[in-house]
Fold each of these.
Amino acid sequence: MKKIGLLSDTHGYLPGKAHSFLADCDEIWHAGDIGDLETAKALASLKPLRAVYGNIDGTGIRSFYPLYQEFTCEKVKVLIIHIGGYPGKYSREARELIDRIKPKLFISGHSHILKVMNDHKNGLLHINPGAAGKSGFHQISTIVRFIIDDENIRDLEILEIPK
Protein backbone atom coordinates (compact mmCIF):
# COMPACT_ATOMS: atom_id res chain seq x y z
CA MET A 1 0.00 0.00 0.00
CA LYS A 2 1.27 3.47 -0.90
CA LYS A 3 -0.08 6.90 -0.10
CA ILE A 4 0.47 9.30 -2.99
CA GLY A 5 0.51 13.09 -2.93
CA LEU A 6 -0.37 14.54 -6.33
CA LEU A 7 -0.03 18.11 -7.54
CA SER A 8 0.48 20.13 -10.69
CA ASP A 9 1.02 23.65 -11.93
CA THR A 10 3.00 25.00 -9.00
CA HIS A 11 4.66 27.56 -11.30
CA GLY A 12 7.49 28.00 -8.80
CA TYR A 13 5.26 28.37 -5.73
CA LEU A 14 4.56 25.72 -3.09
CA PRO A 15 1.79 26.62 -0.62
CA GLY A 16 2.79 26.36 3.05
CA LYS A 17 -0.08 23.93 3.75
CA ALA A 18 1.37 21.54 1.16
CA HIS A 19 4.11 20.41 3.54
CA SER A 20 1.76 19.08 6.21
CA PHE A 21 -0.69 17.63 3.64
CA LEU A 22 2.12 15.69 1.93
CA ALA A 23 4.01 14.74 5.11
CA ASP A 24 2.52 11.27 5.54
CA CYS A 25 2.68 10.35 1.84
CA ASP A 26 5.07 7.69 0.58
CA GLU A 27 5.65 9.45 -2.75
CA ILE A 28 4.87 12.80 -4.38
CA TRP A 29 3.91 12.99 -8.05
CA HIS A 30 3.96 16.27 -9.98
CA ALA A 31 2.08 16.57 -13.30
CA GLY A 32 4.14 19.41 -14.76
CA ASP A 33 4.60 23.17 -14.81
CA ILE A 34 6.86 22.86 -11.78
CA GLY A 35 8.29 26.30 -12.46
CA ASP A 36 11.85 25.97 -11.16
CA LEU A 37 14.32 23.49 -9.73
CA GLU A 38 13.98 24.97 -6.22
CA THR A 39 10.32 23.90 -6.12
CA ALA A 40 11.22 20.41 -7.32
CA LYS A 41 13.99 20.18 -4.71
CA ALA A 42 11.61 21.33 -1.96
CA LEU A 43 9.16 18.57 -2.89
CA ALA A 44 11.91 15.96 -3.23
CA SER A 45 13.18 16.88 0.23
CA LEU A 46 9.80 15.82 1.66
CA LYS A 47 9.37 12.46 -0.11
CA PRO A 48 10.55 10.70 -3.28
CA LEU A 49 9.38 12.77 -6.26
CA ARG A 50 8.19 11.58 -9.66
CA ALA A 51 7.55 14.45 -12.06
CA VAL A 52 7.11 15.44 -15.68
CA TYR A 53 7.86 18.78 -17.26
CA GLY A 54 5.14 21.14 -18.44
CA ASN A 55 4.86 23.78 -21.12
CA ILE A 56 6.23 26.59 -18.90
CA ASP A 57 9.20 24.58 -17.64
CA GLY A 58 12.59 25.59 -19.01
CA THR A 59 15.67 23.57 -19.85
CA GLY A 60 16.67 23.17 -16.19
CA ILE A 61 13.51 21.24 -15.34
CA ARG A 62 13.44 19.47 -18.70
CA SER A 63 16.95 18.12 -18.12
CA PHE A 64 15.78 16.40 -14.89
CA TYR A 65 12.21 15.36 -15.71
CA PRO A 66 10.75 13.73 -18.85
CA LEU A 67 7.73 14.67 -20.99
CA TYR A 68 5.83 11.70 -19.59
CA GLN A 69 6.30 8.94 -17.05
CA GLU A 70 4.98 5.40 -17.19
CA PHE A 71 5.48 3.07 -14.24
CA THR A 72 3.71 0.62 -11.99
CA CYS A 73 2.80 1.49 -8.41
CA GLU A 74 1.70 -1.56 -6.46
CA LYS A 75 -0.25 -3.32 -9.26
CA VAL A 76 -1.51 -0.16 -10.96
CA LYS A 77 0.01 0.93 -14.28
CA VAL A 78 0.36 4.74 -14.19
CA LEU A 79 0.83 7.30 -16.97
CA ILE A 80 1.59 10.96 -16.20
CA ILE A 81 1.85 13.74 -18.80
CA HIS A 82 1.30 17.48 -18.40
CA ILE A 83 -0.98 18.25 -21.36
CA GLY A 84 -3.30 15.28 -21.55
CA GLY A 85 -6.90 16.45 -21.71
CA TYR A 86 -9.56 14.25 -20.17
CA PRO A 87 -11.83 11.33 -21.17
CA GLY A 88 -13.42 12.01 -24.52
CA LYS A 89 -11.09 14.98 -25.14
CA TYR A 90 -7.53 13.65 -24.80
CA SER A 91 -4.66 15.41 -26.52
CA ARG A 92 -3.28 13.54 -29.54
CA GLU A 93 -0.11 12.61 -27.66
CA ALA A 94 -2.03 11.41 -24.59
CA ARG A 95 -4.38 9.36 -26.81
CA GLU A 96 -1.39 7.62 -28.45
CA LEU A 97 0.25 6.92 -25.07
CA ILE A 98 -2.99 5.60 -23.53
CA ASP A 99 -3.52 3.29 -26.52
CA ARG A 100 0.06 1.97 -26.28
CA ILE A 101 0.60 1.83 -22.50
CA LYS A 102 -2.96 1.00 -21.38
CA PRO A 103 -2.69 2.57 -17.91
CA LYS A 104 -5.19 2.02 -15.12
CA LEU A 105 -4.42 5.51 -13.79
CA PHE A 106 -3.91 8.47 -16.15
CA ILE A 107 -2.73 11.76 -14.63
CA SER A 108 -2.42 15.12 -16.35
CA GLY A 109 -2.25 18.78 -15.37
CA HIS A 110 -2.25 21.98 -17.42
CA SER A 111 -5.93 23.00 -17.18
CA HIS A 112 -5.73 24.26 -13.57
CA ILE A 113 -9.10 22.49 -13.12
CA LEU A 114 -9.41 19.66 -10.60
CA LYS A 115 -11.05 16.64 -12.26
CA VAL A 116 -11.43 13.02 -11.25
CA MET A 117 -13.19 10.97 -13.90
CA ASN A 118 -13.63 7.34 -14.85
CA ASP A 119 -12.92 6.53 -18.47
CA HIS A 120 -14.95 3.38 -19.01
CA LYS A 121 -13.96 3.12 -22.67
CA ASN A 122 -10.25 2.81 -21.77
CA GLY A 123 -10.69 1.17 -18.36
CA LEU A 124 -8.86 3.88 -16.44
CA LEU A 125 -9.24 6.53 -13.79
CA HIS A 126 -8.22 10.04 -14.86
CA ILE A 127 -7.01 12.55 -12.27
CA ASN A 128 -6.08 16.17 -12.89
CA PRO A 129 -5.09 17.63 -9.50
CA GLY A 130 -5.82 21.21 -10.58
CA ALA A 131 -3.22 23.86 -9.76
CA ALA A 132 -1.26 24.07 -6.51
CA GLY A 133 0.46 27.37 -7.29
CA LYS A 134 -0.73 30.98 -7.38
CA SER A 135 -0.32 31.66 -11.12
CA GLY A 136 -3.40 31.25 -13.29
CA PHE A 137 -7.12 31.90 -13.34
CA HIS A 138 -8.08 29.42 -10.61
CA GLN A 139 -9.48 30.84 -7.37
CA ILE A 140 -8.64 27.83 -5.21
CA SER A 141 -5.31 25.98 -5.24
CA THR A 142 -5.67 22.21 -4.95
CA ILE A 143 -3.53 19.21 -4.05
CA VAL A 144 -4.75 15.61 -4.10
CA ARG A 145 -3.84 12.66 -1.90
CA PHE A 146 -4.91 9.03 -2.39
CA ILE A 147 -3.95 5.44 -1.66
CA ILE A 148 -2.92 2.74 -4.10
CA ASP A 149 -3.42 -0.64 -2.47
CA ASP A 150 -2.61 -3.65 -4.62
CA GLU A 151 -4.69 -2.83 -7.73
CA ASN A 152 -7.12 -0.47 -5.99
CA ILE A 153 -7.08 3.33 -6.01
CA ARG A 154 -8.96 4.63 -2.98
CA ASP A 155 -9.40 7.22 -0.23
CA LEU A 156 -8.97 10.29 -2.41
CA GLU A 157 -8.63 13.53 -0.43
CA ILE A 158 -8.40 17.11 -1.66
CA LEU A 159 -6.63 20.04 -0.02
CA GLU A 160 -8.21 23.34 -1.07
CA ILE A 161 -6.31 26.57 -0.44
CA PRO A 162 -7.98 29.90 -1.32
CA LYS A 163 -5.65 32.17 -3.34
Note: Residues 3 and 147 are 4 Å apart (CA to CA).
Amino acid sequence: MKSLPDFSFETAATARGLALVAGVDEVGRGPLSGPVVAAAVRLDPARIPGGLNDSKALTAARRESLFAALHEVADVAIGMASVEEIDELNILRASHLAMVRAVAGLALAPDHLLIDGNLLPRNLTISAEAIVKGDARSVSIAAASVMAKVTRDRIMVDLAQQHPGYGWERNAGYPTKDHLAALRNLGVTPHHRRSFKPVHNILCQAISISA
Protein backbone atom coordinates (compact mmCIF):
# COMPACT_ATOMS: atom_id res chain seq x y z
CA MET A 1 0.00 0.00 0.00
CA LYS A 2 1.36 3.43 -0.95
CA SER A 3 2.18 5.70 1.95
CA LEU A 4 0.21 8.91 2.40
CA PRO A 5 1.87 12.31 2.09
CA ASP A 6 3.38 13.57 5.34
CA PHE A 7 4.67 16.73 7.03
CA SER A 8 8.41 15.97 6.67
CA PHE A 9 9.18 18.65 4.02
CA GLU A 10 7.40 21.23 6.19
CA THR A 11 9.27 20.09 9.32
CA ALA A 12 12.62 20.27 7.51
CA ALA A 13 11.91 23.82 6.34
CA THR A 14 10.84 24.88 9.84
CA ALA A 15 14.09 23.43 11.22
CA ARG A 16 15.97 25.78 8.84
CA GLY A 17 14.18 28.73 10.41
CA LEU A 18 11.42 29.03 7.79
CA ALA A 19 8.41 29.24 10.09
CA LEU A 20 5.51 29.76 7.66
CA VAL A 21 5.47 27.02 5.00
CA ALA A 22 2.81 26.78 2.29
CA GLY A 23 2.11 24.06 -0.27
CA VAL A 24 1.23 25.07 -3.82
CA ASP A 25 -0.35 23.04 -6.63
CA GLU A 26 -2.32 23.64 -9.81
CA VAL A 27 -5.07 21.82 -11.65
CA GLY A 28 -6.07 22.12 -15.28
CA ARG A 29 -3.01 22.01 -17.51
CA GLY A 30 -4.45 19.30 -19.77
CA PRO A 31 -8.03 20.45 -20.49
CA LEU A 32 -9.04 22.09 -23.76
CA SER A 33 -11.28 24.59 -21.97
CA GLY A 34 -11.53 26.63 -18.80
CA PRO A 35 -8.94 28.39 -16.65
CA VAL A 36 -5.94 26.85 -14.94
CA VAL A 37 -6.48 27.02 -11.16
CA ALA A 38 -3.83 27.00 -8.42
CA ALA A 39 -4.12 26.88 -4.65
CA ALA A 40 -1.72 27.78 -1.86
CA VAL A 41 -2.34 26.25 1.57
CA ARG A 42 -0.55 26.83 4.87
CA LEU A 43 -1.54 24.13 7.35
CA ASP A 44 -1.67 24.38 11.13
CA PRO A 45 0.41 21.33 12.25
CA ALA A 46 -2.00 20.79 15.15
CA ARG A 47 -5.11 20.80 12.95
CA ILE A 48 -4.34 18.82 9.79
CA PRO A 49 -7.47 17.07 8.43
CA GLY A 50 -7.09 13.28 8.23
CA GLY A 51 -6.89 11.48 4.90
CA LEU A 52 -5.25 14.23 2.86
CA ASN A 53 -3.81 12.87 -0.36
CA ASP A 54 -3.21 13.74 -3.99
CA SER A 55 -6.64 14.90 -5.18
CA LYS A 56 -6.55 12.38 -8.06
CA ALA A 57 -6.42 9.54 -5.50
CA LEU A 58 -9.57 10.72 -3.67
CA THR A 59 -13.26 10.37 -4.48
CA ALA A 60 -15.24 13.50 -5.34
CA ALA A 61 -17.14 13.22 -2.04
CA ARG A 62 -13.90 12.97 -0.05
CA ARG A 63 -12.44 15.99 -1.88
CA GLU A 64 -15.56 18.03 -1.06
CA SER A 65 -15.37 17.11 2.62
CA LEU A 66 -11.64 17.97 2.81
CA PHE A 67 -12.30 21.22 0.92
CA ALA A 68 -14.76 22.31 3.62
CA ALA A 69 -12.46 21.14 6.44
CA LEU A 70 -9.42 22.97 5.04
CA HIS A 71 -11.34 26.23 4.80
CA GLU A 72 -12.00 25.88 8.54
CA VAL A 73 -8.46 25.10 9.74
CA ALA A 74 -5.93 26.38 7.17
CA ASP A 75 -4.81 29.57 5.44
CA VAL A 76 -6.05 28.97 1.88
CA ALA A 77 -5.90 31.08 -1.28
CA ILE A 78 -6.85 30.41 -4.90
CA GLY A 79 -5.24 31.89 -8.00
CA MET A 80 -6.24 31.49 -11.64
CA ALA A 81 -5.03 32.22 -15.14
CA SER A 82 -7.66 32.74 -17.82
CA VAL A 83 -8.02 31.04 -21.18
CA GLU A 84 -6.74 34.26 -22.79
CA GLU A 85 -3.63 34.21 -20.58
CA ILE A 86 -3.06 30.52 -21.35
CA ASP A 87 -3.19 31.25 -25.10
CA GLU A 88 -0.93 34.28 -24.73
CA LEU A 89 1.71 32.88 -22.36
CA ASN A 90 1.54 29.06 -22.89
CA ILE A 91 0.10 26.65 -20.34
CA LEU A 92 3.26 26.25 -18.23
CA ARG A 93 3.75 29.99 -17.73
CA ALA A 94 0.02 30.48 -17.14
CA SER A 95 -0.06 27.76 -14.49
CA HIS A 96 2.93 29.40 -12.78
CA LEU A 97 1.14 32.75 -12.93
CA ALA A 98 -1.87 31.16 -11.21
CA MET A 99 0.47 29.78 -8.52
CA VAL A 100 2.04 33.19 -7.87
CA ARG A 101 -1.44 34.72 -7.60
CA ALA A 102 -2.51 32.04 -5.12
CA VAL A 103 0.54 32.66 -2.91
CA ALA A 104 -0.14 36.41 -2.97
CA GLY A 105 -3.65 35.75 -1.67
CA LEU A 106 -2.60 34.05 1.57
CA ALA A 107 -3.52 35.92 4.76
CA LEU A 108 0.06 35.65 6.07
CA ALA A 109 2.98 35.85 3.63
CA PRO A 110 4.82 32.51 3.78
CA ASP A 111 8.57 32.17 4.40
CA HIS A 112 8.88 29.09 2.19
CA LEU A 113 6.91 27.36 -0.57
CA LEU A 114 6.64 23.68 -1.43
CA ILE A 115 5.63 23.60 -5.10
CA ASP A 116 4.42 20.55 -6.97
CA GLY A 117 6.46 19.72 -10.06
CA ASN A 118 10.05 20.12 -11.21
CA LEU A 119 10.09 23.84 -12.04
CA LEU A 120 9.66 26.94 -9.91
CA PRO A 121 7.63 29.88 -11.24
CA ARG A 122 9.63 32.86 -12.47
CA ASN A 123 9.74 36.03 -10.39
CA LEU A 124 9.21 34.30 -7.05
CA THR A 125 10.39 36.51 -4.22
CA ILE A 126 9.97 33.79 -1.57
CA SER A 127 12.22 30.84 -0.73
CA ALA A 128 10.81 27.78 -2.53
CA GLU A 129 11.53 24.20 -3.55
CA ALA A 130 10.01 22.15 -6.36
CA ILE A 131 8.93 18.64 -5.37
CA VAL A 132 8.22 16.07 -8.10
CA LYS A 133 4.96 14.24 -7.34
CA GLY A 134 4.68 16.58 -4.38
CA ASP A 135 0.92 16.08 -4.04
CA ALA A 136 1.64 12.47 -3.01
CA ARG A 137 4.58 13.38 -0.74
CA SER A 138 3.80 16.64 1.08
CA VAL A 139 0.54 17.02 2.99
CA SER A 140 0.53 20.80 2.30
CA ILE A 141 0.79 20.23 -1.45
CA ALA A 142 -1.89 17.52 -1.21
CA ALA A 143 -4.14 20.06 0.52
CA ALA A 144 -3.45 22.58 -2.27
CA SER A 145 -4.27 19.94 -4.91
CA VAL A 146 -7.65 19.30 -3.26
CA MET A 147 -8.51 23.02 -3.02
CA ALA A 148 -7.53 23.64 -6.65
CA LYS A 149 -9.33 20.56 -7.99
CA VAL A 150 -12.64 21.22 -6.22
CA THR A 151 -12.56 24.91 -7.20
CA ARG A 152 -11.88 24.15 -10.85
CA ASP A 153 -14.46 21.35 -11.05
CA ARG A 154 -17.10 23.75 -9.71
CA ILE A 155 -16.13 26.37 -12.30
CA MET A 156 -16.48 23.79 -15.08
CA VAL A 157 -19.92 22.70 -13.82
CA ASP A 158 -21.02 26.36 -13.98
CA LEU A 159 -19.59 26.77 -17.48
CA ALA A 160 -21.33 23.53 -18.56
CA GLN A 161 -24.69 25.13 -17.76
CA GLN A 162 -23.84 28.08 -20.01
CA HIS A 163 -22.53 25.83 -22.81
CA PRO A 164 -24.38 22.49 -22.68
CA GLY A 165 -23.33 19.61 -24.87
CA TYR A 166 -19.59 19.50 -24.17
CA GLY A 167 -19.91 17.41 -21.01
CA TRP A 168 -17.77 19.75 -18.91
CA GLU A 169 -19.72 18.78 -15.78
CA ARG A 170 -18.29 15.26 -16.30
CA ASN A 171 -14.98 15.76 -18.12
CA ALA A 172 -13.90 19.13 -16.59
CA GLY A 173 -12.82 20.25 -20.06
CA TYR A 174 -10.39 17.38 -20.68
CA PRO A 175 -10.23 16.01 -24.25
CA THR A 176 -12.56 13.05 -23.78
CA LYS A 177 -14.27 11.39 -26.74
CA ASP A 178 -17.57 13.19 -26.04
CA HIS A 179 -15.85 16.57 -25.65
CA LEU A 180 -13.95 16.18 -28.92
CA ALA A 181 -17.15 15.10 -30.70
CA ALA A 182 -18.99 18.16 -29.33
CA LEU A 183 -16.14 20.41 -30.47
CA ARG A 184 -16.54 19.08 -34.02
CA ASN A 185 -20.36 19.27 -33.96
CA LEU A 186 -21.02 22.41 -31.90
CA GLY A 187 -17.86 24.40 -32.56
CA VAL A 188 -15.49 26.38 -30.35
CA THR A 189 -16.73 28.41 -27.36
CA PRO A 190 -15.08 31.50 -25.82
CA HIS A 191 -13.90 29.19 -23.01
CA HIS A 192 -11.83 26.94 -25.29
CA ARG A 193 -8.04 27.30 -25.41
CA ARG A 194 -7.29 28.27 -28.97
CA SER A 195 -3.59 27.43 -28.68
CA PHE A 196 -4.36 23.76 -27.89
CA LYS A 197 -4.06 21.55 -30.95
CA PRO A 198 -7.58 19.99 -31.17
CA VAL A 199 -9.19 23.46 -30.81
CA HIS A 200 -6.66 25.11 -33.13
CA ASN A 201 -7.26 22.44 -35.79
CA ILE A 202 -11.04 22.93 -35.72
CA LEU A 203 -10.62 26.71 -36.02
CA CYS A 204 -8.27 26.20 -38.99
CA GLN A 205 -10.79 23.86 -40.66
CA ALA A 206 -13.55 26.45 -40.18
CA ILE A 207 -11.39 29.15 -41.77
CA SER A 208 -10.46 26.94 -44.75
CA ILE A 209 -14.12 25.96 -45.30
CA SER A 210 -15.31 29.58 -45.21
CA ALA A 211 -12.44 30.83 -47.38
Note: The radius of gyration is 18 Å.
Amino acid sequence: MKKIFFLVAIFHFIAINAQEVKTVVGPAVKGYGKVFQIQNPELVLKTDKQYKVIFDVFTDASKKKGINPLINTVARFLNMHVQQGVPLQNLKVVVVLHGAATKDALANLSFKDYYGVLNPNQELISQLREANVEIYVCGQSFFAKGFKLEEKSENVKMALSALTVLVEYQSEGYQIINFN
Protein backbone atom coordinates (compact mmCIF):
# COMPACT_ATOMS: atom_id res chain seq x y z
CA MET A 1 0.00 0.00 0.00
CA LYS A 2 2.86 2.38 0.83
CA LYS A 3 4.46 1.66 -2.55
CA ILE A 4 1.25 2.50 -4.37
CA PHE A 5 0.89 5.74 -2.42
CA PHE A 6 4.53 6.58 -3.16
CA LEU A 7 4.08 5.92 -6.92
CA VAL A 8 0.90 8.01 -7.02
CA ALA A 9 2.70 10.84 -5.24
CA ILE A 10 5.60 10.71 -7.71
CA PHE A 11 3.27 10.75 -10.73
CA HIS A 12 1.33 13.63 -9.21
CA PHE A 13 4.58 15.58 -8.63
CA ILE A 14 5.72 14.92 -12.22
CA ALA A 15 2.34 15.99 -13.62
CA ILE A 16 2.37 19.25 -11.64
CA ASN A 17 5.92 20.08 -12.72
CA ALA A 18 5.20 19.20 -16.35
CA GLN A 19 2.46 21.84 -16.35
CA GLU A 20 4.71 24.54 -14.88
CA VAL A 21 5.26 27.40 -17.31
CA LYS A 22 8.31 29.63 -17.00
CA THR A 23 8.02 33.43 -17.03
CA VAL A 24 10.62 35.82 -18.44
CA VAL A 25 11.12 39.58 -18.35
CA GLY A 26 12.75 41.51 -21.21
CA PRO A 27 14.53 41.90 -23.51
CA ALA A 28 12.69 44.95 -24.90
CA VAL A 29 11.68 46.39 -21.51
CA LYS A 30 13.92 45.19 -18.71
CA GLY A 31 12.37 44.74 -15.27
CA TYR A 32 8.77 44.99 -16.52
CA GLY A 33 6.32 43.08 -18.66
CA LYS A 34 6.81 39.54 -17.38
CA VAL A 35 5.43 37.00 -19.88
CA PHE A 36 4.80 33.27 -19.89
CA GLN A 37 6.89 31.13 -22.19
CA ILE A 38 4.43 29.32 -24.45
CA GLN A 39 5.94 26.24 -26.09
CA ASN A 40 5.10 25.95 -29.80
CA PRO A 41 2.22 28.46 -29.98
CA GLU A 42 -0.01 27.99 -33.00
CA LEU A 43 -0.20 31.71 -33.70
CA VAL A 44 2.64 34.23 -33.44
CA LEU A 45 3.33 37.51 -35.18
CA LYS A 46 5.35 37.34 -38.37
CA THR A 47 8.95 38.42 -37.85
CA ASP A 48 9.26 40.18 -41.22
CA LYS A 49 6.19 42.40 -40.89
CA GLN A 50 5.76 45.81 -39.24
CA TYR A 51 3.01 46.14 -36.63
CA LYS A 52 1.46 49.43 -35.54
CA VAL A 53 -0.57 49.49 -32.35
CA ILE A 54 -1.98 52.12 -30.05
CA PHE A 55 -2.86 51.33 -26.46
CA ASP A 56 -5.81 53.36 -25.18
CA VAL A 57 -5.24 53.51 -21.40
CA PHE A 58 -7.92 55.27 -19.35
CA THR A 59 -8.13 53.23 -16.15
CA ASP A 60 -5.68 52.49 -13.36
CA ALA A 61 -6.40 49.67 -10.93
CA SER A 62 -3.20 50.34 -8.97
CA LYS A 63 -4.91 52.55 -6.36
CA LYS A 64 -2.34 55.34 -6.90
CA LYS A 65 0.55 53.60 -5.14
CA GLY A 66 1.55 50.91 -7.65
CA ILE A 67 2.34 50.42 -11.31
CA ASN A 68 -0.62 50.80 -13.63
CA PRO A 69 -1.10 47.22 -14.89
CA LEU A 70 -2.26 48.50 -18.29
CA ILE A 71 1.01 50.38 -18.85
CA ASN A 72 2.81 47.20 -17.83
CA THR A 73 0.77 45.41 -20.52
CA VAL A 74 2.56 47.55 -23.10
CA ALA A 75 5.87 46.18 -21.80
CA ARG A 76 4.41 42.66 -21.94
CA PHE A 77 3.35 43.20 -25.57
CA LEU A 78 6.86 44.27 -26.54
CA ASN A 79 8.69 41.60 -24.54
CA MET A 80 6.58 38.65 -25.66
CA HIS A 81 6.87 39.48 -29.34
CA VAL A 82 10.58 40.31 -29.24
CA GLN A 83 11.11 37.00 -27.40
CA GLN A 84 9.36 35.30 -30.33
CA GLY A 85 11.76 36.88 -32.84
CA VAL A 86 9.93 40.04 -33.95
CA PRO A 87 12.55 42.80 -34.21
CA LEU A 88 11.78 45.69 -31.84
CA GLN A 89 11.96 48.12 -34.77
CA ASN A 90 9.01 46.24 -36.35
CA LEU A 91 6.79 47.08 -33.37
CA LYS A 92 5.52 50.67 -33.66
CA VAL A 93 3.75 51.37 -30.38
CA VAL A 94 1.89 54.41 -29.07
CA VAL A 95 0.21 54.84 -25.68
CA VAL A 96 -2.39 57.46 -24.83
CA LEU A 97 -3.15 58.12 -21.16
CA HIS A 98 -6.44 59.74 -20.14
CA GLY A 99 -9.20 59.41 -17.57
CA ALA A 100 -7.94 57.80 -14.34
CA ALA A 101 -4.58 57.03 -16.01
CA THR A 102 -3.85 60.75 -16.53
CA LYS A 103 -2.04 60.92 -13.18
CA ASP A 104 0.49 58.38 -14.46
CA ALA A 105 1.86 61.13 -16.75
CA LEU A 106 3.02 63.21 -13.78
CA ALA A 107 6.71 63.72 -13.01
CA ASN A 108 7.98 62.02 -9.85
CA LEU A 109 7.93 65.03 -7.53
CA SER A 110 4.59 66.29 -8.82
CA PHE A 111 3.08 62.85 -8.26
CA LYS A 112 4.48 62.89 -4.72
CA ASP A 113 2.92 66.30 -4.07
CA TYR A 114 -0.52 64.92 -5.01
CA TYR A 115 -0.34 61.33 -3.78
CA GLY A 116 2.43 61.15 -1.18
CA VAL A 117 4.72 58.79 -3.13
CA LEU A 118 6.96 59.07 -6.16
CA ASN A 119 5.27 58.10 -9.43
CA PRO A 120 5.44 54.29 -9.45
CA ASN A 121 5.10 54.33 -13.25
CA GLN A 122 8.00 56.70 -13.94
CA GLU A 123 10.70 54.05 -14.44
CA LEU A 124 8.41 51.88 -16.56
CA ILE A 125 7.48 54.87 -18.74
CA SER A 126 11.17 55.73 -19.09
CA GLN A 127 11.96 52.15 -20.16
CA LEU A 128 9.10 52.23 -22.68
CA ARG A 129 10.47 55.45 -24.16
CA GLU A 130 13.88 53.78 -24.49
CA ALA A 131 12.09 51.04 -26.47
CA ASN A 132 10.79 53.80 -28.83
CA VAL A 133 7.22 53.81 -27.51
CA GLU A 134 5.49 57.17 -28.01
CA ILE A 135 3.53 58.13 -24.89
CA TYR A 136 0.92 60.87 -24.86
CA VAL A 137 -1.34 62.29 -22.20
CA CYS A 138 -4.72 63.78 -23.05
CA GLY A 139 -4.47 67.54 -22.52
CA GLN A 140 -8.18 67.75 -21.77
CA SER A 141 -7.93 65.18 -18.97
CA PHE A 142 -4.64 66.57 -17.67
CA PHE A 143 -5.94 70.09 -17.17
CA ALA A 144 -9.44 68.97 -16.10
CA LYS A 145 -7.77 67.19 -13.17
CA GLY A 146 -6.09 70.44 -12.17
CA PHE A 147 -2.55 69.47 -13.16
CA LYS A 148 -0.13 72.06 -14.52
CA LEU A 149 1.97 71.66 -17.65
CA GLU A 150 5.23 71.85 -15.70
CA GLU A 151 4.10 68.84 -13.60
CA LYS A 152 4.12 66.50 -16.62
CA SER A 153 6.86 63.91 -16.97
CA GLU A 154 9.46 64.70 -19.61
CA ASN A 155 8.87 61.18 -21.01
CA VAL A 156 5.26 61.96 -21.87
CA LYS A 157 4.07 64.20 -24.70
CA MET A 158 1.06 66.48 -24.40
CA ALA A 159 -1.76 65.92 -26.92
CA LEU A 160 -4.74 68.15 -27.53
CA SER A 161 -6.88 65.21 -26.48
CA ALA A 162 -6.96 61.42 -26.34
CA LEU A 163 -9.46 61.59 -29.19
CA THR A 164 -6.89 63.45 -31.26
CA VAL A 165 -4.23 60.80 -30.65
CA LEU A 166 -6.62 57.94 -31.40
CA VAL A 167 -7.91 59.48 -34.63
CA GLU A 168 -4.47 60.54 -35.87
CA TYR A 169 -2.74 57.22 -35.29
CA GLN A 170 -5.66 55.09 -36.47
CA SER A 171 -5.69 57.14 -39.68
CA GLU A 172 -2.03 56.06 -40.07
CA GLY A 173 -2.98 52.37 -39.82
CA TYR A 174 -2.44 51.79 -36.09
CA GLN A 175 -4.62 49.10 -34.53
CA ILE A 176 -6.23 50.02 -31.22
CA ILE A 177 -5.76 47.82 -28.16
CA ASN A 178 -8.11 48.51 -25.28
CA PHE A 179 -8.08 46.29 -22.16
CA ASN A 180 -9.63 48.86 -19.78
Note: The beta strands are 23-24, 35-36, 51-57, 91-97, 134-138, 157-159, 175-177.
